[in-house]
Amino acid sequence: MSLSWLSLIISFILSSASISGRKLDTPTLSLHREHNLRDSKHAVSASVANDYETFFFNQTLDHFNYRPESYTAFKQRYLINSNYWGGANYSAPIFVYLGAESPIDGEPTTIGFLTDNAAQFKALLVYIEHRYYGESIPLGMTLKGALEDANIRGYFSSAQALADYAAIIMHVKQKLKARYSPVIVVGASYGGMLASWFRLKYPHVALGALASSAPILYYDRITPQDAYHWVITKDFKEASETCYQTIRDSWSEIDRVAHKPDGLSNLNKMFKTCKPLESVDELKGYLKSLYWRAAQYDDPPIYPVTMICNGIDGANTIENGILGKIFAGIVAYDGNSTCYVNPSTDVSQTSLGWSWQKCSEMVMPIGITNNSMFQPHPFILSDFIDECNSSYGVMPQLHWVTTYYGGYDIELILRRFGSNIIFSNGLRDPWSSAGVLKNISNSIIAVYTEKGSHCLDLYSEMQTDPNWLVMQRKTEVKIIKGWIAEYYADLLAFKQ
Amino acid sequence: MSLSWLSLIISFILSSASISGRKLDTPTLSLHREHNLRDSKHAVSASVANDYETFFFNQTLDHFNYRPESYTAFKQRYLINSNYWGGANYSAPIFVYLGAESPIDGEPTTIGFLTDNAAQFKALLVYIEHRYYGESIPLGMTLKGALEDANIRGYFSSAQALADYAAIIMHVKQKLKARYSPVIVVGASYGGMLASWFRLKYPHVALGALASSAPILYYDRITPQDAYHWVITKDFKEASETCYQTIRDSWSEIDRVAHKPDGLSNLNKMFKTCKPLESVDELKGYLKSLYWRAAQYDDPPIYPVTMICNGIDGANTIENGILGKIFAGIVAYDGNSTCYVNPSTDVSQTSLGWSWQKCSEMVMPIGITNNSMFQPHPFILSDFIDECNSSYGVMPQLHWVTTYYGGYDIELILRRFGSNIIFSNGLRDPWSSAGVLKNISNSIIAVYTEKGSHCLDLYSEMQTDPNWLVMQRKTEVKIIKGWIAEYYADLLAFKQ
What we know:
In chain A, 42% of the residues lie in helices and 10% in strands. With 496 residues, chain A is of the alpha/beta class. Chain A is built from 17 helices and 8 strands. Chain A has an 8-stranded mixed beta sheet with strand order 1-2-4-3-5-6-7-8, sandwiched between helices. At the A-B interface, helix 5, helix 15, helix 16 and helix 17 of A face helix 5, helix 15, helix 16 and helix 17 of B. Chains A, B: Keywords: Glycoprotein, Hydrolase, Protease, Signal. Chains A, B: This is Lysosomal Pro-X carboxypeptidase.
């Protein structure tokens, strides 16, 4: 197959895998907010952007095999902030942020939890970029280039990423002669899954893990496919029963209008679309993604779900009926603009890379069958397989995550195995539906907030933070302090 | 490089990696006794050779990557004995023997521990062959053929083998609808390492592990390189101080005789060699391997170390001095024969396969520096690397085992992580020097016997078994019963 054909196919899957409502039509897992609803001028701490040194580690391409190509090395980026570190002589802790599906540059600023707490722990801060993102792409390729090569993209897997982290952490500890410094790994969203799995697979490298908004139970058939959309529905219903009802009724109304003569063109006018709609699904996809984002990132002090519902409920729409209300919801969220309904043309590394990860191993069967404010749109496994197969020529490994990392009967399994994991969640985040929401043992602990959103606990402390968020973070800090104190006591006994 | 050249190189490393005393000169890890010192007519149970059904599983070549070649399937063999099983309705246990560096066929007969105890546990017995051994070689190749292919041999790794086991166990449980049947994995020697690592990496697949004579601490620099030979020395010293002294003095005497005119030819006569010696190292290598084997497999009721020492101490050797005594030791071990000192020409799958595994990842730095009954022969890392590199073109991954599986500070690390592992050892076995000999927690337990040998606990019960061996096995059974009882209680609570 020629390269241009391959590019064409890649472009197809990438567009169809975006959140624009077409084909693969699944919500995004990113911890990053698209909207700058959280104003950094309210941050408690100062900017930390310049407190980091950048390093590159000579990483092994393939940790698990010994083929000639396995030994290929590539540069993997990591950042270190040593401003707060108590030093190796005191076995002071090391906090390691496990990068996920985006470049690592922005994380020291985004993940305020580490910088906000480094001083009280006297912790070294390390941020490691995930392979194939940012500047950590094998063979000096671009991500797009790497994904176009069926062989090279094949090394882009979570097990390899965890082994990368182990190698870098051990390297850093050796370099700093910090053999007995306890390591706490921290991760958000997909990175949260990695953090919890890392503690389970590499207990000799990490003493504990803070796994924020990690939907580790959305694999195989552990969680019902509807769970994600049930939570969104609940969020809107709780914000406003009439708002929920309006959204619920809007889909058939959109269809009704669309199917009349000049339907799309009328919808263009009603929604002041930036570009003429190509299909009614484009509008519906845009709206779904709006509600996904609002619920997932339903952050204080603004609370986007409430903001949208205020728009919908408050609309003076004698003229335009239900669709006028829906439009008012969009305007409430997006603000005053010359046009709306800008279909996503996201070709970020996140959307490129996650599209591959989803097709190869991170298969989360998310769909809509009933009892939600959305139209039914069930997850059809055979369609998913066909799409992945035709896009990347791979058969999605549907059971690999549960085979390698587990997930079924997790309470039973981890009740007497493993320790030192915090699963933190905010229950307004639809991903929390596949998170761990119950304490499993006295050191594998669920810390959640009723009103919290996706990965909110890891964001920088703000003057406007509500008390429940302040308390959640305090609980997490207290638990981690407990692990470290226990470890130091063990260490003392062990060294005698 | 042409295939014939490659074959030549392969043959070189294989001969040099054997236990014949040349080049790589390291002891064997096999659980299998070369000599039939344990007479099966004393076995308590009847033969079990015909109680098994053979299956082949469609196994994935490469679990950790998603390259096109990763999806290649191969047939992996496993055996099932369901004669004793209590069935899925009772969630009756499943004992899984994790095959190691040899074909699986013989194991149901060899590993009597499973058949001897199946009835009281109502356990299903499963024996899984390790990839690249027996009939479980990818692409329908011979092991020799697979090892000659730099690409194909690259998939021959321990992490892949563990993932194979997980896939087969989950498949068997699904097929039998035995979701809640607890799985206990059992392994011996290298297989014992795999069993302990399997419980740590796949706690959702195995409830517990019995790891017999697993030297998991012989990697990197955890255990001093001399440890193996120190134990052998201790064994001989305890059997007889004069015997130990004779062996200790014999090496320089062999050298002295060898360096005289007609030295080798005189040694040929003194030792009645089957073939003329090519070098003095051939004789010394043979003797070292004799003492290794005697100590490692110092089994009751015969106790080969004592047998050799009786030969040495009892020899009437006014004529031949020290070497006459040494020869009497050989005769005592080998019995009456027309000739002796048959250099090993072992080209079994075990020696072929382990030679690769040692060079790629299972790097155990075993050497002799001082304080033993042997001549110094230190482990020289650069030589080892050069040999592996020139034989297989690979750089041994010296730190991979400790990176992936851990090992350093194991007591500190596993004190509050993990559960349900028995590390069993016999302290006369030189491999016990790198085993876990202390309880780490109340469920990660060391069960050892002062007089035991390599993997002895897993062999069939015999009428001649000494009391300490009977007790060791009883302790192991009791501990496993405890795990299963606790699990059933958890299961009951969990299902309510």
